Amino acid sequence: MKQEIRGGQEVTGVFLSEIAAPNLLRLMQASGLDYVIVDCEHGYFDYSQVAALAAVGNGIHFPVIVRIPSVARDCIQKYLDAGVDGLLVPMLETKEQARMLVRYGKYAPEGKRGISTMRPHSNYNPGSLQEYTSAANGRIMLFAQIETQKGVDNIGDIVSVPGLDGIFIGPNDLACDLGTMGDFSTPAMERCISTVIEESKKAGLPSGIITSKTELIKQCRCKGMTMFSCDSELGLLKKGILEMRKRSQG
C-alpha cells in the first residue's frame, strides 16, 4: 500500500469502530477494499484485539492502520510491535507533533523506536537487526489527520516532516472547529480541503478523507485526493439492514 499511495494510486478503505472479529478483514478484502483503519481513538479495542486483527491482516496481506489516541510512545510501541502496518494520529496540529510521531514510529537513524524484535512485527524471524529495522522503516506508514483550522494553518510545516506518508482530513471535527457543524459545503471548508490537498501535493504526499458522504468523496477525488475511508463496519451494517427491511416490506 505504501508504494501504491506514493505512486498516486487510489485506495479505498473502511473504519472498524467496534466489532473486533478478525475475519471481518477477510470479508473486506474479498469485497475489494484496500485497507482498514482500526479506531482506537473513539473505539474500545484492547491491545490483544488489535494484535489479533493485525495477525489476520498480515496473513492475508491486508493493511491494518490504527488510529491512535494521541502521539504517545507507549501505544505507538505496542501497536507497531503487534504488527500493524500503519498509524493515524487524530487532531494533529503542529510540526512538532508530526516529528514526535516519526520519532516514536521509526527505528534509528530516522527515529527512536524501541527495539524488541522477537515479536509479531518481525514474524519472529528478524534476521540481521540492521537489515530488519531498515525494512521495517520502509514498511510502516505514518499518517496525520487534520481536523482543525490550526492544523490547516500549519499544514505546510506538517507535510515538511520527513517520514510522514500521507494526510487525512477528518471533516466532522474540522467543520465543527470552523463553526459550521455538519456542513461540509461552506467556502471555509472548501478552502481548508483545497489547502490540505495542495500543500500535501507540493510535498509529494497523498491526501485523503474519512467520511461516509459519497458526494464529499467525489468532490475530494476531483480535487486530487487519492485515499478514502468511506464508512465503518457499523454504518455499512446498519445501511444493509435498513435496505433489507425496505426490500422485504415493499
From TrEMBL:
Keywords: Lyase, Metal-binding. Belongs to the HpcH/HpaI aldolase family. GO terms for cellular component: cytoplasm. Gene3D superfamilies: Phosphoenolpyruvate-binding domains. The keyword Transcription regulation does not apply. InterPro entries: Aldolase/citrate-lyase_domain, HpcH-HpaI_aldolase, Pyrv/PenolPyrv_kinase-like_dom, Pyrv_kinase-like_dom_sf. This is Aldolase/citrate lyase family protein. GO terms for molecular function: aldehyde-lyase activity; metal ion binding. The lineage of its organism: Bacteria, Bacillati, Bacillota, Clostridia, Lachnospirales. Residues 19-234 form the HpcH/HpaI aldolase/citrate lyase domain.
